[in-house]
Amino acid sequence: MFTILAILVAIGAYLVFVYNGLVKSRQMAEEAWSGIDVQLKRRADLIPNLIETVKGYAGHEKGTLESVVELRNKAQAVPAGDVAGRAQAEGLLGAALGKIIALAEAYPDLKANENFVELQRSLETIEGEIQMSRRYYNGAARDLNVKVESFPSNLVAGQFGFSKKPYFEIANEADRAVPTVKF
Predict the structure, then answer these.
(1) pLDDT in tens, 109-162
(2) Would you tell me how many other CB atoms lie within 10 Å of the CB of residue 163?
(3) Sign of the C-alpha dihedral, residues 52, 54, 60, 66?
(4) Is domain 15-175 annotated with CATH 1.20.1440.20?
(5) Which residues of the chain have pLDDT under 70?
(6) What three-state secondary structure class fits 36?
(7) How far apart are alpha carbons 183 and 15 in whole angstroms?
């Protein structure tokens, strides 16, 4: 009788241990996504200042500037839980921002403008932080996904509604290509 009770207690303790590990992994992934969201918000807040600074020097580049604003608004409109949709929208926005920075090459006065230089530095810093946040999120998602799919934790995960998290990936293959710079 004592042996059966000890086995039941051991199984119960193991289930609690697995469940708590799954909860921790899910929370880590959600916290990591929050980090990405914060950095993307910082970038989105920086864009209007960058656009206004560039407008003064490159007024006839209106189409490029409007495209960046439109892509920023689309990225902000993606629902919070849509990782794939957000990744795609942010990839397009990142490419458009690259065009803005490339405009500086055509306008020496813009390149020398202190506001533009500071905004460009801030954007580079934020882009680096977004990249680190993406890596952290993808690592946290990977850890959760391994637990959700691995035996025997998958049995507990299935019973308590734990599911895999999508990775924050580049959806458009063209975004993976090395950009061509021509002078």
Answers:
(1) 776 677 778 888 888 899 899 999 999 999 999 999 999 999 989 999 999 999
(2) 10
(3) negative
(4) yes
(5) 56-61, 111-112, 170-183
(6) helix
(7) 63
